[in-house]
Write a structure and sequence with these properties.
It holds the Pfam family Hist_deacetyl. By secondary structure, this protein is an alpha/beta fold. It has 10 helices and 8 strands. The chain has a single domain, classed as Histone deacetylase domain (Arginase, Chain A, 3-Layer(aba) Sandwich), CATH 3.40.800.
Length: 301
């Protein structure tokens, strides 16, 4: 059974300029239901993540400053959102949604968070609309609970997973793989265990060729028993921030490659949706919905 984390608390009041990119978190579940891809029984509502679980990936002083709303103004600007209790709660819901969906993935092979992919949050900083790193928290949780021994984080968002790399630098159990725009945000990058920088303007064929060159070898190298997949759709040609030229079909084929290798090798995978900033919201939602469809088909759910 496909299990999908979704919670009304993902949506919170923001300045009008930030409202549009958040709208997809309402529309993805609605579109999945509208197309009959899933039913309401597939969704679950996470609670707030436990403080101790968040501290497996994040610095205690940083987390406390979030909870107390006392981050300095410079860090707030770096994050890009005005701080509020609702915003902090949202991040704790996201983290718990990814923790729980990762546990469901152990049972069913694949599970989703309709939001998440907050990969710019490092151990002691937030950045780029990310305050807590949901997949990093969940990866650390699985290792801490001895539910996984070797984890591979596959980050195919157009932006480098700098926060994830920062959190797991030197970690021998969690391997970070990021394939991202070389000249795109963040402009000062961290070092992942494997970084594949991409030129602007890459099309489907060039992108998928590079992915094929690296995906199986990194699985062979790491031999993971669990995978986290950051499935940002800001690789689309329609994306305002992405600078790549993938079609919707190219994005779907990207997702298929990740799911196919996990299924063939019997490795459970948790998926968080990551970025997407196309001019038309339908392009974002359709590409995300295709990720769900690919997983359902490949995992026979």
């Amino acid at each position: 059974m496909l299990r999908i984390a979704h919670h009304a608390a993902y949506i919170h009041p923001l300045r009008e300029g930030h409202r549009f990119p958040m709208l997809k978190y309402e529309l993805i579940p609605a579109q999945l239901l509208h197309e009959g891809v899933v039913s309401s029984a597939n969704f679950f509502a996470p609670e707030l993540a436990q403080h101790a679980d968040v501290l497996l990936a994040h610095d205690g002083h940083y987390v406390q400053a979030l909870l107390d709303l006392t981050l300095d103004a410079r860090m707030v600007r770096r994050i890009g959102f005005p701080l509020s209790k609702e915003l902090i709660d949202r991040e704790f819901y996201l983290a718990e949604g990814t923790i729980r969906s990762s546990v469901y993935a152990l049972e069913y092979g694949v599970a989703f968070n309709t939001a998440g992919g907050t990969h710019h949050a490092g151990r002691d900083f937030g950045e780029g609309f990310c305050l807590l790193n949901d997949q990093a928290v969940a990866a650390a949780y699985l290792v801490d609970r001895k539910l996984a021994e070797r984890i591979l984080i596959v980050d195919l968002d157009v932006h480098q997973g700098n926060g994830t790399a920062h959190i797991f630098t030197g970690n021998q159990q969690i391997f970070t793989f990021s394939m991202h725009g070389e000249k795109n945000f963040p402009f000062i990058k961290e070092q992942s265990d494997l970084d594949v920088p991409l030129d602007d303007g890459l099309d489907d064929n060039a992108y998928l060729t590079l992915l094929d060159q690296h995906l199986a070898p990194v699985f062979d190298r790491v031999r993971p028993d669990f995978v986290f997949y950051q499935a940002g759709v800001d690789v689309l040609a329609t994306d305002k921030l992405g600078k790549l030229k993938l079609s919707e079909e190219g994005c779907r084929l990207r997702d298929e490659r990740v799911f196919q290798i996990c299924r063939r090798r019997g490795i459970p995978v948790q998926v968080s949706m990551g970025g997407g900033y196309s001019t038309h919201i339908k392009d974002i939602v359709n590409a995300h919905v295709n990720t769900f469809k690919a997983a359902i088909q490949i995992f026979d759910l």
